[in-house]
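Explain the record.
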Amino acid sequence: MAKQGRSTDRKKVNSSQDYELSHVAEKMGVSIQQVTGAKRATGSNDRKVIEKYIADKKKG
């Protein structure tokens, strides 16, 4: 069960952990506020969903 918990945790962005927000922000080349906004806009804390949202916003 611990293994599943770890892999699941890596797939999510915890907004109460500054280092997780800054990691995604740095990776995507955006601000922490934009990551928080993407998280709020998508209603998800799934890393892939947030990264896709940010990438789509950057395109158009």
About this structure: The chain has four helices and no strands. The mean pLDDT is 89. The CA atoms of residues 11 and 48 lie 7 Å apart. The two ends are 41 Å apart (CA to CA).
